[in-house]
Every structure is written in structure tokens, then in C-alpha cells.
Design a protein that fits this description.
The complex is a heterodimer.
Chain A (H helix, E strand, L loop, with lengths): L6 E10 L2 E11 L4 E5 L6 H8 L7 E6 L2 E2 L5 H7 E4 L11 H6 L14 H13 L15 H14 L4 E5 L7 H16 L3 E5 L3 H7 L2 E6 L2 E6 L1 H4 L2 H8 L3 E5 L6 E5 L7 H5 L1
Parallel strand pairs in A: 3-8, 3-9, 6-7, 7-8
Antiparallel strand pairs in A: 1-2, 1-4, 4-5, 9-10, 11-12
Chain B lengths: L4 H32 L4 H8 L5 H33 L12 H14 L3 H4 L3 H23 L4 H25 L6 H7 L11 H16 L2 H7 L3 H6 L4 H23 L5 H13 L3 H25 L8 H18 L3
Helix pairs in contact in B: 1-14, 2-3, 3-9, 3-12, 3-13, 3-14, 4-6, 4-7, 6-7, 6-12, 9-12, 10-14, 13-14, 13-15, 14-15
The chains are: A alpha/beta, B mainly alpha.
């Protein structure tokens, strides 16, 4: 465990009943890192994120944030440091974008009847920065998937966190919105935000993350920069799929091309 | 882009103020109507300062009824808002969590064992509230056995409600229907039969939980996003669910003990107002208090004079009006 790590996860295990979901996870996160958590479905990625967010508590091991155990933070002070966007969020009531985003100020402004001018000002600044100012008085349920994801993200930013945890933030979006959302995150990273996100798209993860953690069956399989994680050996083994890995000519990051079995010769298949 | 959101916000704020002014005017009009029906205003004003004739009618009947309709209507309104938010269901109502079933059983038992011989006019309110408390404790304890969340609350609330009302019907089936007439009236919601000596107790008891609930507007906003997201925004959902469950159940239990089961107020009022004033809960709570009070006072006026001189149980009137309004809202083209 490094002394100066912002977040230290040491020997963490988690079980749902008899089923072990995570087993002896060790992970140190430095301030300002952008970490992509990748791995097959059911590997325990979301559970890891929920543990870091304080929603679940580990059965074994410890999670230390900013020098204090995570369990010593009360909910509200943790919400001032860590903002989390779960995989799905549904809203039964007709909030407008502005009303929804300003809720991110709750950890700072709890007892007054409604959010003050300062809080609303902050929310509208962030909406402007994210180019969603024009949506302010629209109802969230009338937005497109891409717009909605930006609105959800804006609420997290309004929380003014040091760490942002995202569970598949771009999975349902088209390529344009995927890039817009990830570019927004890149900008936030430039301002010093630490980001951990679960991504299914290996190429997007490679393009936007400085470090990738590959989780398989509840354990960390590899942990390192994209070039070291996204090797064809790792991916073929973990995902049981034949791939070709090349280098993106502009970003110099690896990108992964899956290959259908029908193009493989008998020799390839038997390997 | 810079000036775009500002006017919209300003417009909405003016709209919200306008809605509150309208609600307050409607409420004042309904109160005046409830006090003065069939008389002119000068008679009512004179009556307020007199202890004879119409003054006595005002003091003994119309003012107490209007006060209770105001408090019960407002309370059911805010309980409806709160439960709709934590259960994340715009069709939840104060009775969804089983309070009414327990209260009904309390009242029915009270009739069967002739509690009014011992407690007199206090029998129904006390036994009704005792029954409500039993059901609150049952639902709370059962929900604690699993994680205390909206699903377990709904599940055990509905089960408790079904069991209690089945026992009520069982008792009804054994007894002489004539004896149960009063109980039946009460079960349909009845603002007429509360003894006025109890009103000084009910006023603070009904006001206190409602006032506390007004301070939970922001929590309700956040809880309505679901337990997991609420957690991430700094609310402790299980604790908040427990506090809000107890506040709304006790308040609903008090309402039921005072005036029986008045349906649809706590469902329709928040539902309609949310469409008009928007989802944020602080203003929805205030608006629903005013709206619930208005709706129950005006329904009470109808219940008294629609088939004059026969008086209808007010719960029947709210049920018919509320049902029709809901039907209209649900079938309206969006």
C-alpha cells in the first residue's frame, strides 16, 4: 500500500450469501488517475464500484479514502468527496433537468426548504459547461438517452467530488454521444478529478483511461496501462474470443478487433 | 445560450406563486362556503360573536367540522406525497401501508365489545388509533426482518391490510347488520361523529407530524431516485424510510381515528398537483396540504347538501370525485 494513495483497497473480499463475488482485491488509486475497470459479465466489477462508493461493505479487508477508513465517513460527508453514477437510474416523477441537477448540492445544503441562489447558480454554470443549458427546463423523461446521461453526469459534478465512480456510463449511447460524454470526463480529469469507470467497450477504455484493471471471476487479472493490459493473450484468455490487437495510429493506444470464428483456419481454432 | 434558461426559471417561479395564490383562494372560499352554506355572510359574521341560534350551529357543528376537514385533508395530502415518493409510485396513498385495516379492526372490535359503554365518545378515536398502531407495529417489525426498504414496506403493508380487513368482514358477517350501521358509516369516512371535546387534542397532534414532514422535502426528492442513488447523494435510506414510515403512519392513524377512512384524498391531490406544480417535494408538500384541505372541505360540503337532508359519508363523496378525476387524468391524451 502506497502512503500517498487517495484510495487504498487492501485484501477486500465480498460475498453474497455463500457466493464469493470478490476475492482478495488490492488496488491503490492515486489522485488524478483515470481507471477503466473491464472484465466479463458477472466478474464483480459493479460490486467493486459499490464497495468503493460505500454502498456495500466488504466482508474482509479495508478500504481507506484520504487517510481514513471508508466506514468512518457518514453518508453526507462521503457524498461531498465521492460521486457515483449507477448503471441505471429511473425516475418515476417529472423533474426538470435543472431541478434534478441541483439535487447534487444536497450534501452541502440539507436543511433549508429549497436550494439557494448560490447552489442554483453553480448548477447552471455546470450545465453551461456541459452544453446542456438549453435543456434546463425540459422534463428529464422527455430527453434522449445521450442527453439524459449528460444530465446524470452533471448532477454528479455538482456534488463537487474528488472521485467520480461510473458504472457503464456510455453503454447505451451512439458513438457520437459516447465520445461527447467521455470527452467531458477527460476535461474533468484535466481539472484534477479522479475517475474510476466500468466500461465494456475495450477500445473506448483504451482511448480514455490511463490505467486499466481487468477483473476476472472476482480477482484482479492484470492492472496497468492500456498497452500492458490489452494484449491479445490477455483478452483471448479472459473473454474466450479470438482478437487482433493493433495500435491506433493517432493516439498510439491499443485497439482490439474481434474476429469471427468462421475466418479462422482449423489450426487457429484448435489452439 | 446565456439568457435562455433565465426567463424560463423566472416564468416558472411566477407560475408557482400563482398556483399557491390560487390554492389559498380556493381554500378560503371552501371554508367560507362550509361555514355559511344556506346563510348569508352577515348572518355568519353575527353568528361568530353569538352563543345562540346560528352562532350555536357554527360553534357546535360547522366550525369543528371545517377545522377537522382542513386538518385531515391536509394531513392525508402530505402523507400521500411522502408515500408516493418513498415507494416511488405515483398511485400510492396513505392507506397503502395497512394503517386503515388496523384502524377498521380497532373500531369493529370496539363496537363488538361495546367499548362506548366505558369510553363513551372516546371509544372510536381511541380504539381506531390503537388498531392503527397495532398495524404500524406489525408492518414495521416484519419489514425490519428483511432490509427496511420500499418493497418490504409495500409487501407487508398490503398483507396486513388484507388480513385485518378480512377479519373485519368476518366479524361483520357474524353480527346483526343494524348494530353495525354506525361502524359502517365510520368505515366509509365520516366527519360528523367526532365529539367536539376531542378537537383541542387533535389540532396539535395532527399539525405536528405534518409540520415535521414539510422539512423532509429535499430527502423525498432524493429518495424518489431510488435507494442506491439516494445513498450516493448523502441520504441514509433505511433510516429515512423508517422515520418517514412512522411519521406518515402515525399521522394517517390519527386521521383515521378522527374521521374514518376517507379515501382518494391522499392519492388524487398529490397526483394532480404534481402535474401542475412539478415534482420537487418541498413545494409539493405545501401545495398538497392546501389542496387536500380544500378537497376535503368542499367534499364535506357536498356530502352535507347533495341529498339534503340525507347526509352522505364524506368518504363516498371523495371516492366518487377522486375516482372520476383520476379516470379523467389517466385517459387524457398526453
Amino acid at each position: 500500500m502506497k502512503k500517498d494513495a487517495l484510495l487504498s483497497i487492501t485484501g477486500v473480499s465480498f460475498r453474497y450469501g455463500a457466493q464469493t463475488v470478490l476475492n482478495n482485491i488490492n488496488l491503490d488509486v492515486e489522485k488524478g488517475e483515470v481507471i477503466g475497470i473491464i472484465g466479463p459479465n458477472g466478474a464483480g466489477k459493479s460490486t467493486l464500484l459499490r464497495l468503493i462508493a460505500g454502498y456495500l461493505s466488504p466482508d474482509e479487508g479495508s478500504i481507506v479514502f484520504s487517510g481514513s477508513p471508508l466506514k468512518d465517513y457518514d453518508r453526507r460527508s462521503l457524498a461531498r468527496h465521492i460521486a457515483t453514477l449507477p448503471q441505471s437510474l429511473d425516475m418515476p416523477f417529472p423533474y426538470t433537468v435543472e431541478e434534478f441537477i441541483v439535487m447534487g448540492r444536497y450534501p452541502y445544503d440539507r436543511r433549508s426548504f429549497s436550494y439557494g441562489a448560490e447552489e442554483k447558480e453553480m448548477a447552471s454554470e455546470i450545465m453551461k459547461d456541459m452544453n446542456i443549458g438549453h435543456l434546463a427546463s425540459r422534463q428529464i423523461n422527455t430527453l434522449s438517452e445521450g442527453e439524459r446521461q449528460k444530465v446524470y453526469l452533471a448532477q454528479c459534478i455538482v456534488q463537487d467530488p474528488e472521485v467520480l465512480l461510473l458504472d457503464e456510463p456510455v453503454s447505451h449511447l451512439d458513438i457520437k454521444h459516447q465520445m461527447r460524454v467521455l470527452e467531458i470526463l477527460e476535461g474533468l480529469h484535466g481539472e484534477g478529478l479522479t475517475i474510476l469507470m466500468i466500461l465494456h467497450d475495450l477500445n473506448l477504455a483504451s482511448e480514455f483511461c490511463s490505467r486499466m484493471v481487468l477483473i476476472v471471476q472476482g480477482s484482479i487479472y492484470t492492472d496497468g496501462p492500456p498497452a500492458a493490459t490489452l494484449t491479445y493473450e490477455n483478452i483471448e484468455k479472459v473473454y474466450d474470443t479470438v482478437v487482433i490487437v493493433r495500435e491506433n495510429p493517432l493516439s498510439k493506444k491499443p485497439f482490439v478487433i474481434p474476429v469471427s470464428r468462421k475466418y479462422l483456419t482449423r489450426d487457429d481454432k484448435s489452439q | 445560450m446565456k439568457e435562455n434558461p433565465q426567463p424560463a426559471t423566472g416564468n416558472r417561479q411566477r407560475r408557482i406563486i400563482l398556483i399557491f395564490v390560487t390554492l389559498s383562494i380556493l381554500l378560503v372560499c371552501s371554508i367560507i362556503l362550509s361555514l355559511s352554506y344556506g346563510k348569508d355572510l352577515s348572518t355568519v359574521l353575527a353568528g361568530l360573536f353569538s352563543y345562540e341560534g346560528f352562532g350555536l350551529v357554527l360553534r357546535k357543528i360547522r366550525i369543528p367540522r371545517t377545522v377537522m376537514a382542513f386538518l385531515v385533508g391536509g394531513s392525508l395530502g402530505v402523507c400521500g406525497v411522502t408515500l408516493q415518493s418513498i415507494l416511488r409510485n405515483p398511485l400510492a396513498e396513505p392507506y397503502t401501508l395497512g394503517v386503515s385495516g388496523g384502524a377498521s379492526l380497532g373500531i369493529t372490535v370496539s363496537t363488538v365489545i361495546q367499548m362506548q359503554n366505558i369510553l363513551g365518545a372516546y371509544a372510536y378515536p381511541l380504539m381506531g388509533f390503537a388498531g392503527a398502531l397495532v398495524s404500524i407495529i406489525v408492518v414495521y417489525t416484519l419489514s425490519m426482518r428483511r432490509s427496511f426498504n420500499p418493497n418490504s414496506m409495500i409487501l407487508f403493508g398490503i398483507v396486513a391490510s388484507l388480513v385485518f380487513s378480512s377479519v373485519v368482514f368476518f366479524i361483520f358477517s357474524l353480527l346483526d347488520p343494524d348494530k353495525m350501521q354506525l361502524t359502517l358509516m365510520w368505515l366509509m369516512g365520516d366527519l360528523a361523529s367526532l365529539d367536539i371535546s376531542l378537537i383541542p387534542f387533535y389540532v396539535p397532534l395532527l399539525l405536528a407530524p405534518a409540520v415535521i414532514l414539510f422539512f423532509f422535502g429535499k430527502e423525498l426528492d432524493i429518495l424518489s431516485l431510488g435507494g442506491e442513488k439516494a445513498h450516493y447523494l448523502g441520504v441514509h435510506p433505511p433510516r429515512a424510510y423508517k422515520i418517514l414510515f412512522i411519521l406518515t403512519s402515525v399521522l394517517t392513524g390519527l386521521c383515521v381515528s378522527a374521521s374514518g377512512i376517507i379515501g382518494f384524498v391522499g392519492l388524487i391531490v398529490p397526483h394532480v398537483l404534481r402535474n401542475i406544480i412539478g415534482a420537487p417535494h418541498t413545494r409539493l408538500l405545501f401545495a398538497s396540504y392546501l389542496g387536500g384541505a380544500f378537497f376535503l372541505i368542499i367534499s364535506d360540503v357536498f356530502s352535507r347538501y347533495l341529498l339534503y337532508p340525507v347526509e352522505l359519508p364524506v368518504g363516498v363523496v371523495t371516492g366518487i370525485f377522486g375516482g372520476l378525476i383520476l379516470l379523467f387524468l389517466l385517459t387524457r391524451k398526453r
